[in-house]
Write the structure tokens for this entry.
Amino acid sequence: MKILVIGGGGREHALVWKLKNGDAAREIFCAPGNPGIAEIAECVPLQVKQIIELADFAEDNKIDLSVVGPEDPLTDGIVDLFEKRNLPVFGPNRQSALLEGSKAYAKKVMERFNVPTAEYCEFDDFEKALAYVKTQGVPIVIKADGLAAGKGVTVAETLAEAETALRSIMVQKVFGESGTKVVIEECLRGEEMTVLAFVDGKTVLPMVPSQDHKPVFDSDRGPNTGGMGAYSPVPQLEKWLPEINERVLRPVAEGLAEEGTPFSGILYAGLMITENGPKVIEFNVRFGDPEAQVILPRLENDLAEIFLAVTEKRLHEVKLRWQSGASVCVIAAAPGYPGPPTKGLPITLPEVHLAGTQIFHAGTAIQNEQLVTSGGRVFGISAQGTDIAEARKHAYSLLEKVQFNGKHFRRDIAAKALS
Ligand code: AMP
Ligand code: GLY
């Protein structure tokens, strides 16, 4: 098969790397890719928002399957466009992508299918939203309705914080049209977990769970990021998986199919495991980043075969197989992240690294033949081991050998599983 992966971050490096390890993918292209991806696939100079040009590329190059990494092209309708042109593509269409693209839409879906989630109200008027926050009190969670690159959520501990968040979303419009509406939610307490599933409209195949680390500093302090590291499995929360499958993943997939809008692609459930059990914090419609960088190394199947089974609606024929043991990914971030990162810093990488460890590029570029930083999350350093402690040790020791000025990372990735 000739495969086109769309995207250029750590998640897409992990996708390309995993596809490359299977037999089905003969030739892999990635648009736009990055310097790490360029070592194992052919990078195509097209950005993820250039959906018409991407479709032209897929058609001209007789691509057998295109795989969409990030959310933006999905909510822009890249899948609808490819399907209209009879180009095989893995991912949800624009309607299904609303599960991630509109938090208010996702809440209504959860209400219809009785999926456990936080209580909420939605508003498109700033004064009414503020009045509601005052009646509810704090802590309270304020969410921009639309996409905001993971930055549209504020867990407000004071009324002043809640008001600032509402004002910046609804009045100053820092997220543009994404802030036309807000969802205001009850604050849930507990430990978070991510469960991803392959869905082909009817069959739901959950993957092994993982846990992300969103805040930038150790012990979950500081502003939220796209994710500073992840690990899988999550032994302390594993017992909730059957309930998550029965009350979240299956009802959503089956409910949407019954309503005539079947979901196809990756369904990502971000969950809070509260003292009353799992509740959904958010849905995404793609692999997580950095969740993909820990899950895909544990997958034993040929990923291309699974993607094909989804697009051909025969996922029921697939049985997922997983490496026992564990996988840990630590993000090496550029100075400044999650604010504007310093770009152009020279990077040194080790010449060789152990089998069972991976250096996934995210924000890197080549400048004058030198590898340099070009984004906030620069690398995801992943490692596998017989258990979490071993995987973690390998990931951190490889991270030491990845060097650039001002590199920062969390030192407590996977610590919750070990305490
Ligand atoms: P999201 O962008 O929806 O993933 O939200 C970012 C982060 O905000 C989540 O990973 C949670 O840590 C936190 N969060 C979102 N919704 C809630 C909620 N209802 N209660 C507590 N924390 C939340
Ligand atoms: N790591 C969180 C996300 O991909 O949305």
The chain has a mean pLDDT of 96. The chain is about 30% helix and 25% strand. The longest strand covers residues 264-274.
